[in-house]
Amino acid sequence: MTTPAPRLEAIGLKRSFGGRAVVDDVSLSIGAGEILCLLGPSGCGKSTTLRLIAGVERPEAGSIALDGATVCDQRVFLPPERRSIGLMFQDFALFPHLSVADNVAFGLTGSRAEKRSRVKELLDRVDLARHIDGYPHELSGGEQQRVALARALAPRPRVMLMDEPFSGLDNRLRDGIRDETLGLLKDEGTAVMMVTHEPEEAMRMADRIALMRDGRIVQQGAPYNLYNSPVDKAAAAFFSDIN
Ligand code: ADP
Ligand code: MG
Q1: E-state strands within the chain
Q2: H/E element holding 148?
Q3: Does the CB atom of residue 17 touch ligand 1 within 6 A?
Q4: What residues form the membrane-spanning segments (predicted)?
Q5: What does the pLDDT look like over 168-223, one tens digit per residue?
Q6: Which pLDDT value is given to residue 81?
Q7: ipTM of this complex prediction, to 2 decimal places
Q8: Quick one: three-class SS letters along 27-69?
Q9: Greatest C-alpha distance within the chain
Q10: 61 near 75, Cβ under 8 Å?
């Protein structure tokens, strides 16, 4: 038996701005239901890596495949909407003039009844069914974040890319929403890449951490491996604040 291809596989991604490689030979793969945290200090190239995988930027070199099918290489380039990739950002605002239901249904195709039923299912899962006909301004920040999650999940993306999605949230709400979100994604078998600059968050949430510095991945592995056997002094220092 052959092993199935990883849900997401990126090989040798490279992107430069003004002659400087900000993403340099980045390779990573994520399996179904797996959470990879892309961790590193501000400016190291995390968001650019995420944008390359999403397809909103084009790499100078490298390739990206989903379930073994190439979506990007030197000849192929599928636009973001054809990649079955969901995106969540810190400031991924809801459409204020659309109801909660219409926000969640935004990326869906199909009949009105099919869309309504998927919207209901998702709002149930994020425990917001009672707000289905409400509007964003009637919801708290945490509730809006959960609507954004339902919207991102609605088209059943195979991969979810999250760029510091919880950093805008109140500390009190944050842990609960984060655990709930990642739990839901795992249940759906989504491959998750979560970008963060906080080692503590990565240690807590990741199945695997890819540690990035100056555009390169310097170490990749299970959280306890990076914590216990950092690749160098800088990596050790980065993790040393965690208790
Ligand atoms: P991170 O998300 O890790 O903070 P980014 O990927 O946003 O890092 O940025 C990496 C580097 O690339 C930074 O030095 C940033 O200034 C630079 N950069 C990102 N996007 C652009 C762009 N469109 N034009 C020029 N420089 C950019
Ligand atoms: Mg960033």
Answers
A1: 8-17, 20-30, 35-39, 61-66, 69-72, 85-89, 159-163, 191-196, 208-213, 216-221
A2: helix 141-153
A3: yes
A4: none
A5: 777 777 888 888 888 888 888 999 999 999 999 999 999 999 999 999 999 999 99
A6: 85
A7: 0.98
A8: EEEECCCCEEEEECCCCCCHHHHHHHHHCCCCCCEEEEEECCE
A9: 57
A10: no
d(CA 149, CA 131): 15
How far away, in angstroms, is 30 Cα from ligand 2 center? 20
pLDDT the model gives residue 92:
65
Q: Whose CA is nearest to atom 5 of ligand 1?
A: 45
Pairing of strands 159-163, 69-72: unpaired
Evaluate whether 64 touches 14 at the Cβ level (below 8 Å).
no
> Global pTM?
0.90
Residue range 62-77, pLDDT digits in tens: 999 999 999 999 999 9
Pick the atom of ligand 1 nearest to 20's CA. 12
Q: How far is CA 150 from CA 52, 107, 160, in A?
A: 24, 11, 12
Question: What confidence score (pLDDT) does residue 3 get?
Answer: 75
Q: How confident is the model at residue 120 (pLDDT cuts 50, 70, 90)?
A: very high
Among the bound ligands, the one closest to the CA of 49: 1
- Cβ atoms of 21 and 214 closer than 8 Å: no
**Phi/psi at 188 (5° precision):** -80, -5
Tokens of 98: 């659309």
Output the CA 83–ligand 1 centroid distance in Å.
23
Taking the CA of residue 62 as centre, how many other CA atoms within 13 Å lie in the half-sphere pointing to its CB? 24
Closest CA to 167 of 74, 81, 92, 235: 92
Q: What is the DSSP string of 152-173?
A: HHTT--SEEEEESTTTTS-HHH
